[in-house]
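Why should sequence recovery work at all? Because a backbone constrains its sequence more than one might expect. Tight turns favour small or flexible residues, buried strands favour hydrophobic ones, and helices have their own preferences. The token representation captures these environments compactly. In the example below, the structure is given first.
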């Protein structure tokens, strides 16, 4: 395997804990615009290619730890990245899972939109007030587990360490929103977001960097998610 050129915008801060947040590669359900929370589907060929571009881009980094959602698409993504970091095994954490959409899992995004306005959904998820879908989880439960897992990761590591976190679009965006970091665009598949944590404060050096430069544009649902999160962060400023 040949490493790709290192993007110096991704360089770690030696005086901070640096988190490398990576969204999983594009999947069959992503391509089909189907709801994919706790359900799973395989990475597409272009999705795997995008992950491998990200892996080559991150190869020069010294990673001290790696965490991943236990979903198959994130396990596949983390395995490709860590192929360049022999000896480092990812720790699967349930708190990094995507939001559980219950009965809407694997169904077309259009069916969810027919049930609830997407901007309302994502705003109420961020506020912790959305009751959830049948068979799924409430927004409050979701926010608590996301906050808890990132708090634990930040507590377990010290300044100067570089930590990989492979998760999902909504979950990573929620963490950014909790950190007061605005992103007006949905995070592309296999994208890299770099967050420096210092004295309890979080700052983003890079948001949604796509090393492949070829990640498909997101659907309306994902972009509505990003817009709602951006509005919530700005309202809280």
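From this structural description, the recovered sequence reads:
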């Amino acid at each position: 395997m040949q490493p790709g050129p290192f993007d110096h915008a991704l360089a770690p801060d030696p005086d901070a804990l640096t988190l490398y947040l990576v969204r999983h590669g594009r999947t069959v359900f992503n391509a089909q615009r189907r709801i994919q929370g706790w359900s799973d589907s395989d990475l597409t060929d272009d999705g795997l290619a995008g992950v491998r571009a990200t892996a080559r881009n991150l190869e020069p980094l010294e990673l001290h730890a790696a965490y991943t959602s236990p979903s198959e698409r994130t396990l596949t993504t983390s395995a490709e990245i860590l192929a360049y970091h022999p000896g480092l095994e990812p720790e699967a954490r349930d708190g990094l899972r995507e939001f559980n959409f219950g009965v809407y899992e694997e169904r077309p995004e259009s069916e969810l939109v027919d049930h609830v306005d997407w901007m309302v959904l994502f705003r109420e998820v961020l506020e912790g007030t959305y009751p959830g879908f049948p068979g799924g989880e409430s927004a409050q439960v979701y926010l608590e587990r996301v906050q808890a897992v990132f708090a634990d990761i930040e507590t377990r590591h010290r300044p100067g360490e570089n930590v990989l976190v492979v998760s999902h679009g909504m979950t990573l965006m929620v963490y950014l929103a909790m950190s007061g970091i605005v992103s007006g665009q949905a995070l592309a598949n296999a994208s890299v977001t770099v967050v420096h944590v210092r004295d309890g404060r979080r700052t983003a050096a890079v948001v949604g960097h796509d090393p492949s430069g070829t990640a498909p544009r997101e659907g309306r649902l994902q972009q509505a998610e990003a817009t709602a999160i951006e509005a919530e962060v700005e309202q809280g400023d």
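A few observations help interpret the result. The CA atoms of residues 95 and 145 lie 5 Å apart.
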